[in-house]
Amino acid sequence: MACESKPYYITIHIRGKATPLLGRFFQHFFWVVLALGLAIPKVFAAPSMDAVVLLTKPVLDGDVANDPAWHSADAATGFTQVRPFEGRSASEKTDVFVGYSEDTLFIGVICYDSEPENLIISDGGRDSITPEVDNFAVVLDSFKDGQNGFVFSTTPSAGEFDGQVVKGGAGGFGSGGGGFNLNWDASWEVAAEVNDLGWSAEFAIPFKSLRYGGAKVQDWGINFHRIIARRNELSFWAPLGRQHNLFRVSEAGTLKNIEVPKQRNLKITPYLLGQSRSGGAFTANSKSEGDWGLDAKYLLTPSLSLDLTYNTDFAQVEADDVQVNLDRFSIFLPEKRPFFLENAGQFSVGNPKEVELFFSRRIGIGTGGEQQPIAAGARLSGKVKGSTNLGLIHMQTQSINALAGNSYTVARMNQELANRSSLGAIYVARQGEEDEDYNNTYAVDGRWGIGDEITITGYVAQTETPEKRGDDHAGSLRFNWDSESWTNRLGYAKVGENFNPEVGFLRRANYEKFDVMIFNRTRPSDLWGLFELRPHAYHRSYFDNDGYHESGFTHIDNHFEWYNGLEIHTGINLTYEGVREPFEINEGTYVPIGEYDHKESQLVFMTDRKKALYGSVKSFIGGFYGGDRVAVETKVNYRLGDAFTAALTWSHNDIKLPAFAATDGTPASAGDFEVNVVRLRFAYSFSPKILIQALVQSDDRTDLIATNLRFSWLQAANAGLFLVYNEVDDDSFVGGMEKRRELAIKYSRIFDVFQ
User: Fold this and answer.
1) How far is Cα 658 from Cα 582, in angstroms, rounded to an integer?
2) 470 lies in a domain?
3) Fewest C-beta in 10 Å: which of 149, 292, 416, 431?
4) Would 568 be classed as within a structural domain?
5) Digit-coded pLDDT (tens) for 705-721
6) DSSP secondary structure, 63-118, as one string
7) Over the stretch 36-71, which tens digit does the pLDDT of each residue have?
8) How many C-beta atoms lie closer than 10 Å to residue 401's C-beta?
9) Listed residue (413, 492, 491) closest to 445, CA to CA
10) What burial letters (b/e) apply to 674-697, b meaning 16+ CB within 10 Å?
């Protein structure tokens, strides 16, 4: 059948009326932002420092000032505020020392503080550091490519935080969001102490935990930030604009003349697992079993690693948060399994949480959340020839119950170019047990940085599925302009009716999407104690590929932030939904065919997050699928010293929809319903490596109460002793409550073969 070509328009649907915008708007926007990006020069000059060979290794006790090992190193100092007083010198002095031995990079920092008794300290659990507590962080761009890096951070209580920067810290992937992979973990050490000077810390980062180029003597990108929480102060060594954070490695300073070792790195991590299960889908009777497996990591070059896994298990991973779906489309759950998280951002192509061409949760996790055994797998990832990122993944899952075994292959190549630019391609494949049971995805993607503020990103993709031929393409193009005062975006995306990335994530199919955002950051000089105003407007519209308007959303808002930490967000949302087929939104409640055009108010209130007890309230009141909705989410957080944190969240939806009798094509509908989700999360740190965590969730829509208790005693990142208890109480069963219990004890240990 021949396809008839037609012109494209941007349309914004407000209160049921379609307003066409000139197609030339895209062209005008592009040329304006191009001119602005080329015209605006860099404001800050990046500093530099020399790496020095330490004559003796520091004693890792946090006492930098009295350790003679640091006497041969010059201090990096002169931090500049980005908040609250942008461009001013930091209110307290910070001295940073960087040195190295034959196998370790050392960083020492003295955070001078005139009021050390007023430091704000949170629990010392791994990766639990937040902007509301005093902390110091370093980012290392070990390839000096301005796009990738490793982040290490600590607090006065020696909390450990690490992560991986990809794509220049922007436009990242759904699992870690925004170009930063928090779930990347490395083996390193840190010690800290509070003293008369303020507080200080010492980092020991083995070169084996990093990746870098092949030259013997190198220059790395480096930057530091410090947060003085009680003053709401954030400062950087290499100054940055207010629109950026530490992940903006393209504007980092330089660490000069660091002599890196040639690495021989083979790490083997075996594990032993004991499990006891009872009830529900596990088994009708109690069942105990043991198992074992191992992971191995071999460094082929200083920048390219090979990871192998056999009989992979993720018993220690935290349970997913319960989510309630109140629309017609798929919900996104993040990846938490360690094997899939290293260099995860390099495999990211698409639009996060909407179209992701590779989504690792499709491997070893069924659509209902059930686990499928992974027999074995391999991953090759890193850099070749300095600026080329290479990634290969191959995994094999086993058949279990109704889940058939599959073979998965992912191949990714990305060439980094100047000024945050890149060009790449990806291939994703699933092969089932039958020859005709397969799915392939092919795509190319690119990113173009213009000046310091403009970024253009896009991709085009095609899938191959035996039963779905034709109209199997997808793609997007997005313009981003980020300046100190403005963030403006314009985007277009299209997904064909038969586009089917089975090893990816697709929130909705068969659509064209237009979206635009205008966002301003203004810092008044003297207005009622206000620190920043953030007025903004956002619109998105979805049309199916026949031109039918499926969804529209217009958001007009202003964020008020005060110096004392109080925030209030006020907004209005204009929503539109075109429903062509009735769907069940809640058990016994249906949304019939129709067009639903509504308004709703939005109010967000957040107290000072630097306090030990703080909270937030978010509310939505307005029309909803022909009826009304009142939605409230309340969150209370409590922090006790450097050991204990807790968070209680209650989400409430009171929805009133018209009740109606059954008609042709639409079942009878009950009308009104409520949905409540309660989540309690707490953690207690005996030390940075010994931690107990709990997550208890209740959902009255599915009548579930789920409990996840985890005790961990870490030897190193993701290795050590883990004790995990899961319980699910399900009273939706006729005749009474069904209980499912699981107790797992797992021990793993990292062996460095060449150490």
Assistant:
1) 14
2) no
3) 292
4) no
5) 999 999 999 887 778 99
6) --TT-GGGGGSPPB---EEEESSTTSBPSS-EEEEEEE-SSEEEEEEEEE-S-GGG
7) 444 444 445 789 999 999 989 999 999 999 999 999
8) 9
9) 413
10) ebebbbebbbbbeebbbbbbbbbb
- Compute the distance between CA of residue 145 and CA of residue 346 in angstroms, rounded to an integer: 14
Domain boundaries, position 209: 48-259
pLDDT category of residue 185 using cuts at 50, 70 and 90: confident
Q: What would the mean pLDDT of 366-382 be, rounded to a whole number?
A: 84
Confidence of residue 178 (pLDDT cuts 50, 70, 90): low
What pLDDT is stored for residue 732 in this prediction?
Answer: 54
Compute CA distances 157 → 128, 133, 134, 484, 655, whole Å. Answer: 12, 11, 10, 33, 46
- What lies within 8 Å, CB to CB, of 315 at 6+ separation is 273, 275, 722, 724, 744, 746
Question: Stretch 155-175: mean pLDDT, rounded?
Answer: 75
Residue 637 tokens read as 């957080």
Residues 72, 78, 79, 82, Cα dihedral to 10°: -160
Q: Which residues are paired to 249 by β-bridges? A: none
Place of tokens 């630097």: 610
Picking from 211, 230, 268, 220, the residue whose alpha carbon sits closest to that of residue 84 is 230
- Number of domains, the chain: 1
127 residue type, one letter: D
Instruction: Supply angle C-alpha 135, 137, 142, rounded to 5.
Output: 170
The CA-based angle 507-512-513, given to 5 degrees, is 75
Q: How far apart are CA 622 and CA 280, in angstroms?
A: 40
Buried residues in 318-335 as b, exposed as e (16+ CB within 10 A): ebbebeeebeeeeebbbb
Give the whole-angstrom CA distance, residue 242 versus residue 134: 19
φ, ψ of residue 229 to 5 degrees: the values are -65, -45
Residue 216 lies in a domain: yes
Mode of pairing for the β-strands spanning 567-579 and 594-606: antiparallel
Structure tokens at 299: 């460094």
Residue 507: Cβ within 10 Å count: 16
* Pick from 449, 348, 525, 594: nearest CA to 38: 449
Residue pLDDT, tens place only, 202-258? 999 999 889 898 888 999 999 999 999 999 999 999 999 888 899 999 999 999 999
Q: Tokens at residue 601, please?
A: 């108010």
The radius of gyration of the chain from alpha carbons, rounded to an integer in Å, stands at 27
Most confident of 100-109, 180-189, 661-670: 100-109
Residue 440 in any domain: the answer is no
Per the structure block, which two tokens stand in for 425? 């391609």
